[in-house]
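hey can u check if this looks right to u? its 193 residues, i copy pasted from the old doc so theres a chance i mangled smth
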Amino acid sequence: MSRISPETPLTSKDARALLAMLPVGNEVGRGMSERELDLIEERWKFQFAPDHRTLLSEGLPTGNPSWPDWRDGSPEDLAERLAWPVDGVLFDVEHNRFWHPEWDPRPASTQDALDVARAHLAKVPVMVPIFSHRYLVADPSRTGMPVLSMYQTDIIYYGIDLVDYFHHEFGHPVPTPDDHQYPAIPFWSYFLD
C-alpha cells in the first residue's frame, strides 16, 4: 500500500486493507453510503477529506468507544469530538496564556481574550475525528493530508497520511523520512512547525 497523494488516492481495496489491520475488539460495520456521508456533512457543516470518505464507505469502525460512530452515535458525542480541537486551544488561551502571533494583541481580560480567540477560531479549518484524539482536516479537495494527534495546543503529526497513520496506530510503523515535507494546514500547522 503506497502513500496517498493526488496521483495515488486511497482506493477501496487499500481502505479495506487498513480496516483489516484493526486489532481484536474493533469491529467494522458495513460501509457508509454516499447518502449517509452527505447527510453527516450537511448536518455537521464540514466535508470529509477524500481519503476519510473512502475509508468510511468501505467500513465503519465500531466496538471501541474511541471511534466516532457516524451512523448511530449520539449527537452530543459527535459535537464534542468535532469541537475538541478548538476547545483545546480555548482551554490553553484561558488557562495557559496561549495566544497566536497572528491574532490581535491579547486583551488584558481573560474573557475578552476568549471572545477574540473564538472569533478567530471560527474561521480555521475543521478537524474531523478519526480515532480518539487523532484528526484529519476536513478538506474535500486534498488527498494525502497528515493525521494529527491533538490535545489542547500539544499537536503533533501522527501520520504522513491515513495509510501511515493506520500503520502507526494499529500496525507496523514505517519511519517517516527526515526530509518529509508535510502540506500546510491553515492555522493548525503553526503548532507543528
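The chain has a mean pLDDT of 94.
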